[in-house]
């Protein structure tokens, strides 16, 4: 049996054990604190093994997609975390450039943030798909430069999934470029609803935001500062 297969099996077994023990609190069945402490100590030991066996680090491709709110917000949270560690971040907006957002005003104050809003808004605002496609291609060329620059730890391609869906750039072009980079160390985040199957399959981490309730839809409340922008 290969080491890789053995490692995968060990990870799966440890993950299963952790799930079986549970997260604790009042969800655990013990009536006395001594038994509860033993359960949680076992959970801690298993968690230590889970962390120890996962040794690989690499530059990740991360996707935030779905119809729910929070995709760009999640990506910008990663940006804040990254600059907090002293690294550089590049943010390229493919669609939303027509908006003047609070996050742009705030993050542009940091010297290790490079922010580019190259889109000019939604299709019903721009009404010019030839220019929209030209701007997307320009944004992608700029993004490639940042991805190749090892001094940037995080590159956010905001709403690029929408640009793919609109036919302005292909998933294959993006994936082929990223695959061509040897031993890439930085992380690339792709946001926007409707991420393509090929992007989802290629990514290392995918989170789908699900809409449960939204004030615009249910209550007719328009976009507001501090919430949407």
Walk me through this protein's architecture.
Strand 2, helix 4 and strand 3 form a beta-alpha-beta unit. The mean pLDDT is 91. Helix content is 48%, strand content 14%. It is an alpha/beta fold and 229 residues long. The protein folds into 2 domains: 51 residues; 158 residues, Rossmann fold, CATH 3.40.50.300. Helix 1 runs antiparallel to helix 2.
Write the layout of secondary structure elements.
Layout: H1 3-21, H2 33-53, E1 61-65, H3 71-84, E2 88-93, H4 102-107, E3 113-117, H5 123-126, H6 129-148, E4 152-158, H7 160-165, H8 171-179, E5 187-191, H9 197-202, E6 205-208, H10 215-218
Parallel strand pairs: 1-5, 1-6, 2-3, 2-4, 4-5
Helix pairs in contact: 1-2
Order of helices and strands: HHEHEHEHHEHHEHEH
Question: CATH H-level name of the largest domain... which superfamily?
Answer: P-loop containing nucleotide triphosphate hydrolases
Strand order of the largest sheet: 3-2-4-5-1-6
The beta-strand count equals 6
Key attributes of the depicted protein:
229 residues, alpha/beta, Rossmann fold, six-stranded parallel beta sheet, 10 helices, 6 strands, 48% helix
Concise structural overview:
By secondary structure, the protein is α/β, with parallel strands linked by helices.
